[in-house]
Specification:
The chain has four helices and two strands, in the order ααβαβα. By secondary structure, the chain is of the alpha+beta class.
């Protein structure tokens, strides 16, 4: 949740890629294999930073992400529709 920069993060902390790499590396080395994130955390930055931090070790973990919250102004930018989940909540799949 603290990876990236966002309005909500200012209250709990903001970590860039370098810091996230360190935290995730320590977690993996310590045996942690479950990571939970959400598309709304830092407007998607958190998922992107976590993905980069996991790198080739992604296959060794269980990854959960939450969707539902408003990510834009359009009618498909919120909720649990297939469109929101596949298009807006998964920006990496766009290209």
């Amino acid at each position: 949740m603290t990876f990236g920069i966002g309005i909500r993060n200012k209250q709990i902390g903001e970590l860039g890629q370098k810091e996230a790499d360190s935290v995730v590396g320590m977690a993996l080395d310590g045996g942690i294999n479950f990571f939970d994130t959400a598309d709304v955390y830092s407007s998607g930055q958190s998922e992107e930073i976590l993905g980069k931090a996991l790198g080739k070790r992604r296959k060794d973990i269980i990854l959960a992400t939450k969707v539902r919250f408003k990510m834009g102004s359009g009618p498909n930018d919120v909720g649990l529709s297939r469109h929101h989940i596949f298009e807006d909540a998964m920006p990496v799949s766009k290209g």
